Input
Amino acid sequence: MLSSSRSGQGKGCVAAGLWRMALSGATRLLWRERLRWGPAVSRLGCRQKSSPSFLNRTDLPKLAYHKLKGKNPGVVFLPGLFSNMNGEKALALEDYCKSVGHAFVRFDYRGCGGSDGSTKESTLGKWRKDVLSILDELTQGPQILVGSSLGGWLMLHAAIARPEKVAALVGVAVAADHLVATFQQLSVEVKKEIEEKGEWRMPTKHNEEGFYSVPYELIQEAENHCVLNSPLPIKCPVRLIHGLKDDDVPWQISMKIAECVVGGDVDVILRKGGSHRMKEKEDIKLIVYTVEDLIEQLST
Output
């Protein structure tokens, strides 16, 4: 069922222009007029940076992280490709969890942000191990995973590997299989050149260089972790948020994920004005309210 959102008045309302594909049956209101969370948005710009803690692992790179102790279900944020744990979405979720007393973890994959390791030696499989290390070593009880872009791809793997630990998923512009699919669309000549150089300079508008340096080995290895060619054995609640103006990852990928997930409690939320990073104030509110809705659902 395709339905338009209400465009009610008030500080806490999400702007008009949001469509929601409800695949779970009953339609639930995912955002509310919550004045109590409003100040958290304005606090993001004046946050004091604190030093991260580090997860030490035998024979593996140390992972930088920030952790809040609190009630379950906890929330874990998974960043996007070559991103880190200090983005607006991660910090907003941390503020929210702190305000309601729920546990929260944000972290950097190996080779990214404050974690040890080299990007050139990173692969999707190694980042998958990083996510599982965070879940196994730093969290207790049920967790809601919030995955942004490539983090959403890794979130699906974590849900399959740790079904007893992952209580719900929130994907933001999930890039499942997208790195592999994009590479496969290149010409034979370009692919051969990338293989010879050992690096793919993938165009992006999200950094000053204008491209991501993606190791060829990462692309090759990522083919082993594609998930959209068969049913996904995930039965927990899944919420997939995607902007219709996403120029990096097509919103149709979220629809494909919804079709592949075997569980029935799956919602796809399409934001008309949303871009890939979904970092505008109203986008972030929607993400937080979606997590809030799941916390309430899992706590009753």
